[in-house]
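Folding problem:
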Amino acid sequence: MSTIDRIRVRVAHDDPIAVAGLSTALCRYHDLDVDVLDDRSDAAPGGLRLPGRRSVDVVLADYANGVPLAMQAARESIAPGVPKIVILTAIDREWEIRSALARGVRGYLLVGCTLDELADGLRAVHRGARHLSPRAAARLAESISIEPLTAREEQVLRLVVEGLCNKAIGGRLGIAVGTVKSHLKSTFEKLHVRSRTQAVAVVERRGLLREHPQSEAGRAPHAAAVLMTRHAAAAHAANRAELAA
């Protein structure tokens, strides 16, 4: 393969072990030229700096680095030679995937994919296509038929996640309890759930109601369990209060 056909790849990750491992693994592919940075010369305040135009074709990054780099690339997209951004991450929630793609990420692959799948994703993005791993694509497909929540339904759902009963939600939002119940009924129908606990589970699984993308480090393995335990106790108390009212 000629030099002009080779794809110049840079691995951008905060973990030097991840950089070394990915760089070494990708070097086995003859069409990939992997750029290894030992001195972090592209470090910039608040994160990594986008590589210079025409110096790199594709940047492979974790979520925390990939989204800001994609935003930089989008701002410079009118100029030729701006590298495309591919994210390799364990974050598989719908909200984070949508957020990354909306900010200019061209490829989204999940940890656990094979090395061949990763290389194919880099090639596809280099050709100008968008590329999602099957599991990431399934997350998005899952939500296609789901009607989006209204602003008020989101407000009510946030307070449900906090464990508030209908009366407390109504007091917080300045609406009647009957109106709260109406919003909850509509929300449950849209989420295809029957209870508050199921709604909270969907919120956690899909990453709904998030205002900012979650970082890799911030996603503790037990986060869902902690949320569900806290909500279950609060929901139980709320249900008792409603029965007594």
